[in-house]
Known about the structure:
By secondary structure, the protein is of the alpha/beta class.
Amino acid sequence: MSTYEPPAPSDEHRAAVELLAGSKRVLLTGHERPDGDCLGSQAGLVQILKARGQSAFVLNPDAPDRRYQEILTEDFHVDDGGALPEHDLVVMLDGGDLSRTGRLAGRLAKADSKKLVVDHHLHDGDRWWDAAFVDTSASATGVLVRRLAAHLGAPIDPTAARAIFTTLVTDTGWFKYSNTDAETLTIAAELIKGGVRPAEVYGDLFQRQGQDHPRSLSGALARTIYYADGRLALVDLPEAQGGGPFEVDSDGVLDVLRSVESVEVALVVRAVDGSRCKLSARSKGAFNVQQLAARFGGGGHAKAAGATIESPIEKARTDLVEAALELLAATTERRSSPRSAADAARKS
């Protein structure tokens, strides 16, 4: 029997649960280049809804990475640009900005169906949904899926358990990031007790790289540039030979950059094509990378954020460094000011 007790739902959360419970055919979607939290949340919620006798399927803008194949089922589909399947509810997981669903966004917005967001990111855009199950303090969207299962009285089968566990370990860096909290570890313990094998999950997620991986990673890291006495580290990844993005996992690069003692902010900017880049930003100190990403139309969390930048990589790199150094200076000023010190003393 589960020992997990979810937080008491707010009125807004209760409305979201009621909307989800009353739907018959649910279309789940997520952001472009879906990651472990996005895919795991989708896989978990699909199984939860099916256990309740509801119809549920996933339609994503991009194909998943093969490392996630163990949690994917026949319910997962990649958008082909055609008409949306029949549905009465759209659920966007791990994102609150409809534009992040890529070319699906226009059709989803026009669909004559209710809309629900399940997410743990900050969102400051226009409200396009009918209900939201959002908590920015949650370590992963998968935590919110586990809460939904509890509120719906739905069981967690082995597929859903592994999927939710995947969300936890990918968004907490295998429980080493500062977002790891008691609720995260309680859910993880419950899932392990229910049969999830952490070593298997780790092997599937992190030990299936191709033979080019070491060379690709070393090639990316060789492009590291330090600024502000080593407090800011940036890797820019131009288009690969023959065009297209440089194929290396940004998280692997960012983990190495953050292992450097002096580094407070780590940035990877990757050229998608000649006029567009993707930013991945991480922080291990007081620097808020969500504020940096927001300047370029992106979002995320204080410690992890990203953005799509409509500029060639050379300009994007210059603009990012300028903005990051400005915010880093402001962070230093706040941290060293007498008022900040007094505030910190009061809080302690």
